[in-house]
Design a protein that fits this description.
35% of the residues lie in helices and 23% in strands. It has 417 residues and is α/β, with parallel strands linked by helices. The longest helix is centred in the middle third of the chain and has 18 residues. It is globular, with a radius of gyration of 21 Å. Bound molecules: N-(iminomethyl)-L-glutamic acid and fe (iii) ion (FE). N-(iminomethyl)-L-glutamic acid (NIG) binds next to helix 4.
């Protein structure tokens, strides 16, 4: 029995909670770290109580919500997106369905470079307007943290513009946004046959944009149609000297050993990883680098090589799941669909898929100490769902049962029942 009455800003009662937290047995195989007939108290933007209603005792709050047995999860985290861009690539969708492949289109100046042209031509306001519906559609699915990459500017102004739009979207909607610098995404045409010069420039721009507080992490595309390991290492050395974490588009179309490289830089994540080798998995395990699965890109490219899920499980690699929202390989703004596809196409369990968009996605962004699980002292980033069990989030296709989303304790969205 508690003697003092607990006072919260928000108190959610009569709820079930998929905490995804070791504090509630997640690691010890309590499915979803679940609490039934629970309550959640929020104070000063943090989780101040989580437990059963019996444990709560007498409590009061400025706002009390009877969840009527709905489920709370950590607010979802989309840890890999390119959602800020100009233009549209449905023409390439048609070309692919007429028999041309993604790499062929890229070599002919389409692909990433066609989005670069459209993005460079867009003003910052236009880019914001174009990106807004994509951003909002993630929010409407309970996503409280979104990583947004640059990579369609490929010059200082263009990369800056994209990162500024990313920042503004987060600020305007109270969503936590992580900004990732991806100038090594493709070689812009003005640097054709001068790749090393471009890499030097990209390293210089990184220093400038870091000084402007526009960079939280550094990414690159390591692939035969993009940059090799030496070029990526050069950029990662600069990132390291600035104290910035790194991540990598690795092993999407071939095994370049990029996942092993990013692990050796103590990188946050290796993303795509369909062609991931066991050698690289061993390096990822050693450095606790997260494997980010992007099933919508796999689906769009009609890839047939599956990421080595069983071997990753065997080595204890944490797996995240993300939309990869981009105009080429993943024109999707549904993280719930990505969870479904991670289960159906890659064989993840619904519990692994939810871990992939919560606790493991937070680690892919270096946010594991504040986000991605429901536990005392964590940021009060939670989503409320009108579902029977957490597996419904992965099971249902094209259905969205979100009832509310709080980020740092603030209601970003709440549909009163
Ligand atoms: O994650 N692989 C590289 N980058 C994106 C595709 C970008 C594009 O086609 O515009 C991806 O798949
Ligand atoms: Fe990507």
């Amino acid at each position: 029995m508690r003697v003092n009455m607990m006072q919260f800003d928000v108190l959610i009662t009569n709820t079930n909670i998929a905490t995804m937290s070791d504090a509630f047995g997640y690691a010890k195989k309590t499915p979803y770290g679940a609490i039934h007939d629970g309550a959640l108290g929020i104070k000063d933007g943090k989780i101040a109580f989580v437990g059963t209603e019996d444990e709560l005792g007498v409590a009061d709050a400025h706002k009390i919500i009877d969840a009527k047995q709905s489920w709370l999860t950590p607010a979802l985290i989309d840890c890999h997106t390119h959602l800020v861009y100009g233009g549209n690539r449905s023409d390439e969708f048609e070309m692919r369905l007429n028999g041309m492949d993604y790499q062929e289109i890229a070599k002919q100046g389409g692909g990433i470079l066609s989005t670069v042209q459209a993005t460079r031509q867009s003003s910052i306001d236009e880019l914001y307007k174009l990106s807004l519906p994509r951003f909002k559609s993630l929010m409407k699915e309970g996503v409280g943290t979104i990583e947004i990459k640059s990579g369609y500017g490929l010059n200082l102004d263009g990369e800056r513009k994209m990162l500024q739009v990313a920042k503004k979207l987060g600020d305007d909607f109270g969503i936590s946004v992580k900004k990732t610098y991806l100038a090594l995404h493709a070689l812009p045409s003005e640097y054709m046959a001068k790749a090393d010069e471009y890499v030097n420039q990209a390293c210089n721009w990184l220093k400038v944009l870091h000084d402007e507080n526009l960079v939280d992490a550094v990414d690159a595309f390591c692939e035969s149609i993009a940059f090799d390991k030496n070029q990526v290492s050069q950029l990662f050395d600069v990132a390291k000297s600035l104290g910035l974490p790194v991540k990598l588009h690795a092993e999407q179309m071939s095994d370049m050993g990029g996942a092993g490289l990013v692990a050796e830089f103590n990188g946050l994540s290796a993303d795509h990883i369909e062609y991931l080798s066991t050698d690289s998995i061993i390096k990822m395990a050693k450095h606790d680098t997260v494997g980010v699965l992007l099933p919508t890109a796999f689906y769009t490219l009609k890839e047939t090589k599956l990421p080595p899920i069983d071997t990753m499980r065997q080595y204890g690699i944490k797996m995240a799941v993300s939309t990869d929202c981009n105009p080429g390989t993943s024109p999707s703004t549904s993280l719930l669909l990505a969870m479904n596809m991670a289960c159906t196409l890659f064989g993840l369990t619904p519990e692994e898929a939810l871990a992939g968009t919560t606790i493991h996605a937070s680690k892919a962004l270096g946010l594991q100490n504040s986000k991605g699980q429901i536990a005392l002292g964590m940021d009060a980033d939670v989503a409320l769902w009108d579902i029977d069990r957490p597996a419904d989030l992965s099971y249902l296709i094209g259905q969205n049962h979100l009832q509310g989303l709080w980020v740092a304790g603030k209601a970003v969205m709440y549909f009163a029942q």
